[in-house]
Specification:
Elements (H helix, E strand, L loop, with lengths): L1 H62 L10 H15 L5 H13 L12 H7 L5 H14 L3 H9 L2 H6 L5 H7 L15 E2 L12 H10 L1 H8 L3 E12 L2 E11 L4 E7 L6 H17 L9 E6 L4 H7 L7 E7 L5 H36 L1
Parallel strand pairs: 1-6, 4-5, 5-6
Antiparallel strand pairs: 2-3, 3-4
């Protein structure tokens, strides 16, 4: 009797497994169709909503006098809000209508709007007063796929200003950072904002910081910028009888080169920079592939001394950066003051180097 039951069960089991397999495959296929359809509907709906709100903003500006200083003030918007809310329901408050007006003023050319961005993206972008900066954030947001919160973070942490900090000529820098094949200084941001790691700035080790960056790798990649992919952590570097370890190694597909990152607790020292130069030379000779550009070294420290950096590095060294990091999110004003200090130190270093360059030119002319 037991044998008969086992035989019957054996006959049933394969059929059950086949049915479950078919169901799983069917669910996967059907789910794919529905997900794609929903995504397409959302994309179309989002595009139409942004276009409609942009047109509402245009109409308001034109009826108010066609300029930023409105001939007819809040009264016109309040009256419009009451009528639209009565007919279409919530969503047309005076505040929202003012945002539509601001978005139109920020993007008066409708062709510059990007279908990939939502209305919430545009509301956030409209708060950026500088036109070049606003366009930069729009393009980066679209190319990098930033969510609204990501965009808000990048603006509040002055992503754009930190990107320009490594450039001598700020007037030309905004054009440099949009190059199709950027240079290292077009990519490296200083200071780095690493508040997402959750590491306490009062008591931590390099291993804690590295673990926090790996645990929140997506946010760290957001901070680094576009084109980065993690190659490995604690990557071994064999030099003679010694074995060193680079904390993090990335490859950037836009700059087509390795980015070597070493983490330090405390101020960046000349020894730290010397060790990074060793790492760079090793990767340049042993790890570069055909078509690669020279590797870039970044020493991340909780502090740095601009004078020490200046006298440690060769004036022609373009691929090694000492970058200060913050484990707390600084206020916009604190960050602005720090960038101003860094800029002043950068200008001072440039002025100190200028007489030496003039002297070299004079020596060359004398030889001729």
């Amino acid at each position: 009797m037991k044998k008969a039951r086992k035989a019957k069960a054996a006959l049933i089991t394969p059929d059950v497994e086949v049915v479950e397999s078919v169901e799983a495959e069917l669910y996967k296929s059907v789910r794919s169709y529905i997900a794609k359809a929903r995504a397409k509907v959302y994309t179309v709906a989002n595009k139409e909503m942004v276009a409609a709100y942009w047109n509402v903003g245009r109409e308001i500006v034109e009826k108010q006098g066609g300029a930023e200083r409105a001939k007819y003030g809040d009264g016109l918007i309040k009256g419009l809000s009451l009528k639209l809310t009565a007919e279409f329901g919530p969503g047309y408050t005076s505040t929202n209508l003012k945002y539509m007006r601001l978005v139109f003023l920020a993007f008066p050319n409708r062709h510059t709007l990007c279908d990939q961005l939502s209305w919430s993206h545009y509301r956030t972008l409209a708060s950026v007063e500088n036109a070049k900066k606003r366009q930069f954030y729009l393009e980066e947001c679209a190319k990098s796929g930033w969510g609204v919160r990501d965009l808000q973070r990048q603006i509040s942490t002055q992503f754009y200003e930190r990107l320009l900090a490594n450039h001598v000529d700020l007037k030309k820098a905004s054009g440099y950072v949009k190059r199709s094949r950027p240079e290292p200084k077009d990519i490296v941001r200083s200071p780095a904002i690493l508040e997402f790691t959750g590491v306490s700035p009062f008591a931590y080790k390099e291993a804690d910081l590295e673990a926090g960056l790996i645990r929140h790798l997506g946010k760290f990649l957001l901070e680094l910028g576009r084109g980065f992919a993690l190659v490995g952590e604690q990557c071994p570097i064999h030099v003679g009888n010694e074995v060193y370890h680079c904390d993090l190694v990335f490859y950037n597909f836009l700059a087509r080169c390795f980015f070597l990152v070493d983490l330090k607790v405390g101020k960046v020292t000349p020894e730290d920079l010397g060790q990074m130069q060793l790492y760079k030379h090793y990767y340049e000779r042993e790890r570069m592939n055909p078509g690669d550009n020279p590797p870039v070294g970044i020493v991340l420290g909780s502090d740095r001394d601009e004078a020490v950096i200046r006298y440690t590095l060769n004036e022609h060294e373009r691929n090694l950066f000492a970058v200060k990091y913050h484990l707390n999110l600084p206020t916009e004003e604190e960050l602005r003051r720090e960038l101003q200090r860094e800029r002043a130190a950068f200008e001072e270093a440039r002025l100190l180097a200028a007489p030496q360059k003039v002297a070299k030119v004079r020596v060359r002319k004398g030889k001729k």
